[in-house]
Amino acid sequence: MEQPEDMASLSEFDSLAGSIPATKVEITVSCRNLLDKDMFSKSDPLCVMYTQGMENKQWREFGRTEVIDNTLNPDFVRKFIVDYFFEEKQNLRFDLYDVDSKSPDLSKHDFLGQAFCTLGEIVGSSGSRLEKPLTIGAFSLNSRTGKPMPAVSNGGVWMESLRTPGLEASGGVPGKKCGTIILSAEELSNCRDVATMQFCANKLDKKDFFGKSDPFLVFYRSNEDGTFTICHKTEVMKNTLNPVWQTFSIPVRALCNGDYDRTIKVEVYDWDRDGSHDFIGEFTTSYRELARGQSQFNIYEVINPKKKMKKKKYVNSGTVTLLSFAVESECTFLDYIKGGTQINFTVAIDFTASNGNPSQSTSLHYMSPYQLNAYALALTAVGEIIQHYDSDKMFPALGFGAKLPPDGRVSHEFPLNGNQENPSCCGIDGILEAYHRSLRTVQLYGPTNFAPVVTHVARNAAAVQDGSQYSVLLIITDGVISDMAQTKEAIVNAAKLPMSIIIVGVGQAEFDAMVELDGDDVRISSRGKLAERDIVQFVPFRDYVDRTGNHVLSMARLARDVLAEIPDQLVSYMKAQGIRPRPSPAAPAHSPPQSPAHTPPASPLHG
């Protein structure tokens, strides 16, 4: 664990050199013998992964797998990609649920059990494959739904006081084994290629009594220990023995992790509603074979080993043919930055009364002569990183939720520097100076409206959509929001523009509304309209400070987590608009590629 950094050393933090080197690790989740919670069918499992804060030990949802219908033995396709820090103990928690509806609220689904481990445990296990029993430990009943929910203490240990009698009736006993979770980890290569391919099949075995088969393909990459890891599943083609599946794209590193000769196994199944899909047969190939494209080399016999052993005259269970194959190198965030894309950084600070009186030490806006408050600290940490991508270092800085002098009118987008015509401040120091000046002149009030500042930045982003500019709005708030519906609408409208929103939550609030705006697992919507992209990243500041709240434990980690989604969000916008990176002025298109020795130093934005 790193030594806590003193506040005074903030100005010395080198954003580009200060990044902690990390390996990206892909975690694959499978389960066996889960509890069956459905009366007339099997459970529909979902796995939720949590990571733990460095000092305060609070669990934070990292991501969710897809839901697989009707199975007690799921092999989830959706992976968790995490940064692996060799020198740190990275605690992980995996919760399993039987999904009963489309609601993203986990309390509305049946809890099936959970497991705790560290990332190092998975990586260090034989073959980087860890099996652990799932258990239902202590829990509490959700007051709204009556369903059992995990109740975890700060250290990840069950709280005995929350144990509720009578769980046996709902299918689990505290401490009872509830099946097994299998966690596999693999370090990801730096391969940036994305393969796009299409398959069809011919004369597959008929598996359904009253109709033809309903075939789908499942792709696996081989592991060094001879096992296989699922990496893709096609859609189901109903009632046909000669299916033509839709074209799909998959990162080459997901298919073979950059090893072109690594075995790829493809299984063909007949889909059944109850989840007991019938095995039709299988074949193996490799990325190198597939890259030959449509040819006689890419027509594969589908073989069912059991049938082959039983029947002497068995030939095959049909054939699968590769119809098309193309590969393209994915453009990265760095490609666009090198090509001249500018990041326009705007900060918006919450001046509402819920933050507390700035003259009192309990206030989140308290102006101590000895150290930065949470707002100033969060602004400094994030600004130190992002300012390197903006050439003029002039940053618009806004406040919201305060009464302004001289007439006491309430404003939800006032310039911190007092200049309505030009709210820009010079550098991070300029923003801090304007912030402290505003604290001395305005009255904290309310309500807490986000929509005006989101719309303000969206107007600027809409003015330049050619890929040369990308706007990032940093909102620092205590998390109490008054205009949720309007904010959702503003975000949905902004999602089609070149902009992202970072929300940093300060203080000890629950932040449920901020998590909802984040939209990592459930895309945000307004009036029935879904956001085109996920453009919001939320980070609770308390996860990165010590118990006193006066020291950031790792500036580099805070900066990376706050900015983690910006690269993918920028690239997703450019891709959707068909915008390619411009040639770097320093390295024209005809020049040879840079050698690794000349590449810029890593920063948290280079995800």
Return the average pLDDT rounded to an integer.
Answer: 83
What is the rounded distance between the termini?
22 Å
Rg (C-alpha, Å): 27 Å
Which regions are unreliable across 5 or more consecutive residues at pLDDT < 50? 1-21, 153-172, 586-607
Number of strands: 30
Characterize the quaternary organization of these chains.
Answer: single chain
Morphology call: elongated
Sheet having the most strands: 7 strands, mixed
3D architecture notes:
Strand 8 (139-141) and strand 9 (148-150) form a beta hairpin. The strands form 8 sheets. Strands 19, 20, 23, 24, 26, 27 and 30 form a 7-stranded mixed sheet that branches. The protein has a 4-stranded antiparallel sheet with strand order 4-1-10-7. It contains 12 helices and 30 strands. Mean pLDDT is 83; it is low at 1-21, 153-172 and 586-607. Helix 6 (374-386) packs antiparallel against helix 7, helix 6 packs across helix 11 and helix 8 (451-463) runs parallel beside helix 9 (484-494). By secondary structure, the protein is of the alpha+beta class. Helix content is 17%, strand content 30%.
